[in-house]
Write a structure and sequence with these properties.
single chain; 4 domains; alpha/beta; 14 helices; globular; D-Maltodextrin-Binding Protein, domain 2; 5-stranded mixed sheet; 6-stranded mixed sheet; 15 strands
Length: 385
């Protein structure tokens, strides 16, 4: 195990900072710091590496410094920490917090040019609005809509720039209204975002939980928190609402009513929060699709969504999967449902890795058409996984 010393650290400082800071390296406090570092059991995994600790100093001359930005701590993923705040090395996956920073920067810059309007499943304060903020940042105009079908309509008519719609939940399965609209509308999938679903217990006015008479929320939220509610609030009646945000509004108008809502709703409706993250499963997430009227160019980590229609006959699914298997293309999702256009046809919603402009997927599409299948590309877009 490599030990470090003040002298060794000083030698990694190559800029004009070395003149100003030289004395600091040999003071008692700095020696204490290196002693404590050397006492760490896993020194080989020190973040950042010794050579990168003073990257910020070596990158910027002392006499050119105008602003100092301090990061709370280095990114601790493998090969991520490089001595610079809010940065990772090239070709290293960005941690979620860094992605969020760049999303907010991009969102703010775009808002200065032309404000984006995003339609989502309302009302305000739902997890769908949270998905909009997660993907586009907070500097957008958000338009809550009453139904998924209306979101598609808003996008098709150009009333909004993009729509954000839920397509599947890890606990509840697929969202049929979204799949039906994808089949019916000539709209492109432009992206995706996975939102981890956390449920918060709140109310408009604070009271003792033992006095609670009703717990209101969307049926899915009530179901996803049922074990926690059974154990902690077995006496309270459960009332289903059209959304978690509507439950927040009900808590304001109905006395002794608790609501299960998102953290966004807690803030937006100024609710008192009793407990955080009361969901029964910590692996509860919803996949949202970004829909629009534009085509997304290739990246190095793409996903393509297909709608493939075949005659309803034995072996139909195996036949359309073979071209993907032949070229070793991974399939991430397969959904099947009867066609609403013909009693003798089936629709297969398939997500594969790659962009439809990639050679292998071009070959797959050609093979599928030779089999007599109807192939529609719903969109190629960057994968969020």
């Amino acid at each position: 195990m490599l030990k470090i010393s003040p002298t060794q650290l000083y030698k990694t400082l190559h800029s004009d900072w070395s003149i100003e800071l030289k004395e600091e390296f040999f003071k008692a406090y700095f020696n204490d710091i290196t002693t404590k570092i050397n006492q760490c059991k896993d020194l080989d995994n020190l973040c950042p590496s010794i050579e990168d600790i003073f990257s910020a100093y070596n990158s910027t001359s002392l006499n050119k410094v105008k602003v100092v930005i301090l990061g709370q701590d280095p990114y601790h993923g493998k090969n991520q920490a490089n001595g610079l705040a809010f940065a990772v090395n090239e070709n290293c996956p960005s941690p979620p917090s860094l992605k969020n920073i760049f999303k907010e920067i991009i969102s703010s810059c775009l808002a200065l040019e032309e404000e984006l309007t995003i339609a989502y499943l309302g009302p305000e304060g739902t997890h769908s609005e949270g998905a909009v903020i997660q993907h586009f940042g907070s500097s957008t105009s958000r338009s809550p809509r009453g139904t998924i079908e209306d979101i598609f309509h808003q996008v098709r008519t150009g009333s909004v720039n993009f729509g954000v719609v839920p397509v599947e939940n890890s606990s509840e399965g697929v969202v049929n209204a979204t799949l039906n609209s994808l089949a019916d509308e000539d709209i492109k999938i432009c992206g995706e975002t996975y939102l981890t679903i956390h449920h918060q217990l709140g109310s408009a006015k604070k009271f003792k939980l033992a006095d609670a008479q009703t717990i209101a929320s969307h049926p899915q939220a009530l179901g996803q928190c049922s074990k926690w509610l059974d154990a902690n609030l077995p006496h309270a009646k459960r009332e289903a609402t059209s959304s978690t945000a509507e439950a927040a509004k009900l808590s304001k108008s109905q006395p002794k009513t608790l609501c299960i809502v998102s953290s966004l709703a807690i803030s937006k409706y100024k609710l008192h929060q009793y407990h955080k993250n009361i969901e029964d499963s910590s692996f509860n997430n919803t996949r949202f699709l970004i829909i629009g009227n534009i085509e997304i160019e290739q990246t190095k980590q793409d996903k393509t969504s297909f709608l493939i229609q075949t005659d309803n006959q034995p072996g139909a699914l195996i036949k359309i999967l073979e071209p993907f298997n032949k070229r070793k293309i991974n399939l991430e999702r397969i959904e099947t449902r009867p066609s609403r256009e013909s009693l003798n046809a089936h629709n297969f919603f398939i997500d594969s890795t790659g962009h439809y402009k990639d050679l292998k997927l071009k070959q797959v599409i050609a093979d599928l058409k030779k089999l007599g299948a109807s192939v529609r590309i719903l969109g190629s877009y960057p994968s969020d996984l």
